[in-house]
Specification:
It is a single chain. By secondary structure, the protein is α+β, with helices and mostly antiparallel strands. The protein folds into 2 domains: 101 residues, no CATH class; 58 residues, DNA Binding (I), subunit A (Orthogonal Bundle), CATH 1.10.30.50. The chain contains 6 helices and 10 strands, in the order E-E-E-E-H-E-E-E-E-H-E-E-H-H-H-H. The strands form 4 sheets. The protein has a 4-stranded mixed sheet, sandwiched between helices. A hairpin with a 2-residue loop joins strand 6 and strand 7. The two termini are 30 Å apart.
């Protein structure tokens, strides 16, 4: 039961990994927050609930009953600095490659550099792929032509206006789609 937590009344079970879409005051999507952080923003008056959880569940405390939100909006506009390139992370790379090995197509559990760093390869999206431990070990610090291997798909940097948001969110709530537009 590590993925769930009981409410103070011991009744309904609220997933602790549940995410809530946070919108700017202009309804621009910003990020996906943990449920606990979203409820704190609403209770403190820094955000308002735009859509509630369709399950109708609520969080209960001694002097408060708060419906579980699915989408919240900040009360004040927050300026977001422009980031031109999506940062390379292990989680983002696995999501991009759909947890599949770039060499054999099996379940990936490691990150591999196509051109090994020991041979001048860079740690960038275009040189990193998801790999199973077996292929990563067999490849070691060799180049693909030396092994006679080919990549199943050429690696490239992810793109799209909400890719950063979707990378950490896992399965998106259907209520988020109108705010994410075509990128979802």
């Amino acid at each position: 039961m590590d993925h769930a937590r009981r409410t103070s009344t011991g009744g309904s079970i609220i997933p602790s990994r549940r995410r809530v879409l946070l919108l700017n005051a202009t309804y621009e999507p910003l990020t996906a927050l943990p449920l606990r952080r979203a409820v704190v923003l609403v209770v403190c008056g820094k955000a308002e609930v735009v859509h509630r959880d369709p399950g109708g569940s609520a969080l209960r405390a001694a002097a408060l009953v708060q419906e579980v939100p699915s989408v919240i909006r900040l009360s004040r506009y927050v300026r977001v600095p422009y980031l031109g390139r999506v940062p390379l992370t292990r989680a983002g790379l696995m999501l991009r490659d759909r947890h599949r090995c770039a060499y054999c197509g099996g379940r990936a559990d490691t990150v591999d550099h196509v051109v090994p760093r020991s041979r001048g390869g860079q740690h960038v999206w275009e040189n990193c792929v998801a790999s199973c431990a077996r292929c990563n070990h067999r490849k070691a610090d060799r180049l693909l032509p030396e092994l006679g291997w080919r990549l199943r798909v050429l690696p490239r940097a992810p793109h799209g206006p909400h890719w950063r948001l979707l990378a950490g969110a896992g399965d998106t709530d259907p209520l988020w789609l109108p705010y994410l537009g075509e990128a979802a």
